From TrEMBL:
Organism annotation: Lepisosteus oculatus
Entries under PANTHER family matching the protein: VON WILLEBRAND FACTOR A DOMAIN-CONTAINING PROTEIN 3A
Boundaries of every VWFA domain copy: 144-298, 488-620, 936-1091
Domain of life: Eukaryota
Region (Disordered): 1-34, 703-785
Biased segments, Basic and acidic residues type: 772-783
InterPro entries: VWF_A (IPR002035), vWFA_dom_sf (IPR036465)
Listed name of the protein: von Willebrand factor A domain containing 3A
Compositional bias (Low complexity): 707-717
Xref: Pfam families: VWA_3
Amino acid sequence: QLSARSSEPSSDREPLKSRPSWQDSVLPHSEPDSGLLVTHVNQTLDLLRAQGRRAGASEGQASEEWLSNHSLESAGLTISHLLTQGKTVVAAGRGARSQMEFSASTIEAFESRLFEMIELYHRRMSWLMEGSRKVFGLVKGSRVGVLIDASDANCESGRLQEFQKHLLCLLDEQLCYKKQLYLLSFGTQESLLWDSPRDVNLRRLHQARQWVQQLGGSGGCNLLGAVKKALGREDLSSLLVVLGSCPDQPADVLLAYVKQCLLGRTLPVHAVAYDNGHPMTHMALKNLAEASGGRFHCYSSDRQGAIYSSSDIALLQRETQKAMDLLSKIKEMRQGLLGDTFVSVMQKISLEVAELPPSHFLPKPPNHCGPLSIERQNFLPKTSADWLKSNGLKAKKLSLYQVLAPNAYSLLEEFVPVLRKTVTSTLHEKAMVQFEWHDGTVKNVHVDPPLLYNYQRQLASAVLMLERRVEWLTTGSRQIWGNVCEQRVTVLVDVSLMNSLYLVHIQHSLRLLLEQQMADKESFNIITFGTEVQPWNNEMAAPTLENLQDAWKWVLGLKCTGSRNVLGALRRAVEADLQGSLDEPQGIYLFTSGVPDQERAAVCGYVSECCAGGALRLHVCLFSGGGAPLPACVPPRFATPPETADTLRDLAHSGQGRFHWFRETGIVESDDIAALLAETERAVNYSQKCALLVESLTQRAGRKQLAGAPEGQPQQRGRGGPRRPAPPTPATLSLSRMQAKEGSPDDSAFSQKALTWRPTSAKAGVPPAEPGKSRTLVDTEAKQKKRSKVSQSVFYTEDGNSVGMVFKKYPKSKSVRKYIPFVSLPKEEEICSTKQWLRRFGIRKLKLDLHQLVSGPDCTHQKKLVPAVQKRVSAKYCAIFPSVQVNGIVRHLQFTARELEEYSAQLERVLRRYVQRMQWLLAGSRRLFGAVLEGRVCILVDTSGSMEPCLPEVKQELASLIWEQLHRGGVSFALLGFSDRVAMWRPALAEPTKEACHDAVQWASQLVAHGSTCTLEAIQAACELGDTLGIYLLSDGKPDSSCSLVLRETARRTAGKDIAVHTISFNCCDRCLAANAFLRKLAQQTGGRFHRCHGDVDAHRVAHRMLTEGFTDEDDPVLPAFEGDDLRMLMEEIGKARRFLTQARAFR
């Protein structure tokens, strides 16, 4: 009506204007709609959140179905799709060849989409490893049958609670969304919750939870019976099998039955290996899942990497690896080649600027490119070890023991015929000072204060000279390279891609070396290495001015490329430059910033072989940069700075050279400086011992002065001077000897009296009664002798049987007060067990037990019952001394503040030595195998199927053991691997020659993990190798046979033989208590040691904190709890020392 009305003519109204039609407006430079073009910010947030969840949105889809829509092929991200976006260009001119040309934007867009897909796959894998999906995987199907392993092995104590927790999580997260459920548990017999599949509702889920909480061990693992009952149900769409132990039936029987039952029927089986590390079980479940068209899932509580063998995760990983391979090919395309095809990528920036190396933009020091300023030395350089041979304390006869030797006397013991016993001289103990000698003995030393004061001045001048040499070693090129001492020098310089940001620093270091230390040498050469090895000259040249300038010009043109081919550079230096001249002193100086590309054992073995028996030395200079590496640079072999320093230090010491580590801020570690600091510390120690000697002499003199004149004999001063005492009456012994000299016929009486005489130093205060005298008379004479203040000593003179007599005072009662001993500890590590080591250097052996020091007779707190007040009252002197609690008993502390400080200092030295011993036990091959003590050993390595994930690590550590302990220590050895059978390297023990060690490492690298664990057969084969042997057994669990049988047979085999079985628990989780208990009992039974390295990373961190921060707190840092015998005993001793140190500081 409106349109008709509007079309009618009207004279009194204006005609209506029609609305113009809608026109689309096209904006220039507009972006296409990617699904995120919205009109409100909330819609944008919702779309972004939905896009982040796209990876796990299809919860009902397995990875195979999900990848059909999200794979690289479906997204158009394969190499064929990329090649369609390029164009073929034929270069003009003769010999023209075609090449593919891509724009930089195309490559960058393709690369960006690849990164997005990789991120999408990672999000999908993260989603699959959340909640119950991490334990049981993604359960598909609407009508699901669940078969749960309820065997004794799967429901053992400590494991059942965690299993029930995971099953309840599965019910709440996945099974509650299914239509029907059919639950069945199986042990020896099957147990059903419902007779048939039931619909899922709240009541059914409640029943299922109660059923799960009532699960318990029910015998064996009858998986075949459970599968038979489940396959008999025709109304199931999928089957979930959760297996935590080995099935009773063989895998092939189980697989054949499932295939036969599923002919013409589709019932996918989702097989889950729940915390089951047996490889045969994994293989059986994989075959079962593949035969039914289902999927396999693996879960392990102690091995996080086990889940990556699951079907869903493995497919995503495979797709991720394809994307990574495409990125590698794109990287090759940027370098101009893709296979045999030439590729050109059109860059957006100038090619001249792009081709400039990063070092072109680095700041350079003044006159960096100018000619060298040569400096010549007027002396022959020496290493610190050689310099100390002529300038050290021992060389200058400034050793404390050399100074005290003329006035030091050993304790004398002689047999006295009259006394009929051996008597020790007591005169030196009163006139001299007791001093512990360097060999552990105690000598009586005559202290000469002027001599010791002069000696301390000489020590001060020697320390000043040592400090001047240390200062000299930290200046100029010596701060970077150390002291270059050899006359024939080859310099190996690391110019790998990791050093691109430090190329100018490397060039400046070489400039300083050429200017300051190379001019006086006989010949030199410079070799740079990245992936390729490039020498400055084909042979060594004399360091003339022209050659040095030419070498510097060559250094200015260096570029950083490739990785670190250290072994190639060493072979070039040894086999080309130094061929035929190994008898002349020559040195190789390796300048690098990281670990080599090759294995540590291979490089160290080659260096030790080249440097053995000759004058060739390899010195390593490690440079640690302060900045981060290039973003596009991936190190060929990753290592932390401490690991890098350990590797290169071992390499230098294998080449009989020195290790030097420096940063831009200064020197971190230097063998030259360490030797000088050790000599300085020795001088300071000598000076402190001198001060202690003088102080002990001063204290002894002060005690004599305080004692004054004896009671009853006051000193009388007058014109006549002191009154001389009357001549004493001759004693029985002197009369007897005089009578024997004069030859009197009445010898019997005097001889009888001589036999009843006792020396004044005897313990008894009353001499025995002589025959014929009454007891009263004897008591009276004893009291008179006790009151007398003089005594006499009779001795034979040099003139025949002449008798001499010496008058002296009675010795005072010996003090029972205890003093702080001075501790002498070894600097080098001894190859022995911790038990043997602590017998010599334990706290009790070093007499540093604080409880014993404060528990002497003079420290007793006396209380006596007073009848008048009817209570126990302390003695009057108790308030004079401070009182402390020692093991719940009150003791009087009679140590001075200085003595407690000395005790703390001594105990800190002992603690530091203990921590160094712990670091030594955790270093190298000792971390896994412990210290090898015997000279004849057999190494038994478990190669059963459970060792498959960790066997590469064992092979690497075994190679380190062969070279580090067996070859270096000259230990005859044999290797033996055992699984379901025993494989021996050689039928008898072999000497540790280089050829034998290489052969042993090669044999060990071919070991394969499979089968069961025949521990008993391996021990029996090892016992046949000899009657004196050390067996080192490495295993990750109990044997297949009975543990008691293995223990009994091992005891029978080793009876009457010197055979010790040392057991090594490797990769045994905390719940494998039975396995560790078996290995510990086997070691104790045969006199061996049990070793388990668990928590070594924490121990290294704790040791570093203790050595750097000191021992300020008893409980911080916390020591890890080691189970191995060696580490456990050392940890207990460290804990005891820390407690004593804390108590001593509290007493202070």
